[in-house]
Amino acid sequence: MDQKKLEDLLKLLQINQGDLSKLTEQQRKDMKDYKFWKTQPVQKFDETIDNEGPIDSSKKPEDVRDEPYPMLAEFEWSTIDINDVQEMEDVFVLLNENYVEDKDATFRFNYTKEFFQWALKPPGWRHDWNVGVRVKTTGKLVAFISAIPIHLTVRGKDVPSVEINFLCVHKQLRSKRMAPVLIKEITRRVNKQNIWQALYTAGVVLPSPVSTCRYAHRPINWNKLQEVGFSDVPMGKTAAEMVALYTLPKETKTQGLRPMGLKDVDETLALFEKYESRFELVQAFNKEEFTHWFLGGDNIPADKKVIFSYVVENEEGKITDFFSFYSLPFSVLENAVHSELGIGYLFYYASDADLKFEDRFSEDATKTLKTRLTSLINDAVILAKHANMDVFNALTSQDNTLFLDDLKFGPGDGFLNFYLFNYKAFPISGGINEDKSYDTEKRSNVGVVML
After folding, report:
1. Active-site residue 451, yes or no?
2. The organism sits in which domain of life (predicted)?
3. Catalytic residue among 206, 248, 346, 451
């Protein structure tokens, strides 16, 4: 397999919702000089942190300006009504044509209405947190950013926050420096609701990451990847050998594995909270939020399904494990055979495998959890194949480093930096060693998964 080509594309996949790395060369230069971020309440590279907590806690909503920030004369702000069919169509067109495209114009994100309904409308979502920029004379949507409410926990401290999503500027207008203005405007709107912290990610290094995880990818349909130019046969190998290398069992093997249902929410949420309590950066869910994120909407056709969640129920009727993954496919451009590439992303999971051990890093606890997770996530990849996914992605977050190698997740060149806005924190391990290899001993203390 041509690992470089595979990793180059997968680096594009990390430029996802909330990722601030989709900037022009000029904007990248400005970011390199940190001109914008020097004006923001974020950790500095050389800052010594004595205590964790908000950087600026002096402001109140009434201190925040009521009017939007000035925009270039030929453009105007537009609050997007995501319940309006035409306005959402404008967002689809903007993102599907401008959000992510590889340098050869071969692959591009293929968002669906169902994905946006899931990603943009969790409990507590706000109409005015979907911010667009339109051309005054034509009404054409040329930029977009959004925020959704999340409840973070940083080393046990509750931090009400937002997650910044879908930052996108039309590629013909990226010299206009709209991205920083979009960030300032969404910040203003969030601050008016008395929320002062945010979580965001970037592939580029900004001031200053609280953690860094590495991307890993697991090819599923190697033949298709080769046919679309995604993979090549490595020297000394044959196509048949590559197919054999990544061949999966036809069926899952975990006893009691089944799709998660509404009746499972209470018990699964309780298991999830116990499992997540081991990590230092996590997102807390109430029952309504958990139901939304892991069951999605009602009456979604199978071919439009976004979130896939499964539980393991033992013979006594107890839920011992759960895992989830979501779908965000790529359009394949100018290919005579294939029009889409199925991409799966490992989302959240939990297991009671090592909860009985006092020290989860002990040899017995580690071995027990590694065995269970390796089996579970292998089943997740099989189910992703059943859902027509061709590549399965994961980070080195959570306890992922226990199974990545065994399940043939290749380490990518892409790294995802986690940032906290207006909150300083001590570094949080991201599951990688100094040489960027998987850290299978300390693992990761990042428990949050961003879309």
Report:
1. yes
2. Eukaryota
3. 451
